[in-house]
Give the backbone structure.
Amino acid sequence: MTTFPRLAATALLVGLVAGCTNASGSVGAGQSAAMAGGEPIVQKPATVDNNVYTVEQLAEKVGCKPKIQVNAKELRTGFCKTQDGEFFVNTFATQAGKDAWMDTAPEYNPHLVGNRWTVLSSRKVLDALKERLHGELHLKDHRTKQMQTNG
């Protein structure tokens, strides 16, 4: 299985698990940027955007027409391919749903995080997208003290 179909399958599985889990005890989304080993886990955007967006609205901001992979009430996931690269856009019905997803998010990849949304891809792609999406760049798995980047 190639990387992006594997990411899509993981996003679907994580979304389903997130709907059944309780996000308690771990540092998660919505909390201040923590330090792990002296390095910031989160890079905050220059401009904070607290609007709630759909997968399509987020994709449009970066010039993409998403291919919807998951279309559930509590989680929607779209795949995008642009000049910046390939990535997955996830939106959540509630902040609690996003927080639960963040607690079980893929540890092997950095991700951008916003108000009830995440974008998964390589660090290079996320760096290209973060200014247009105004998301926090999560470089490390918030449950560990080791770098968790790929690409």
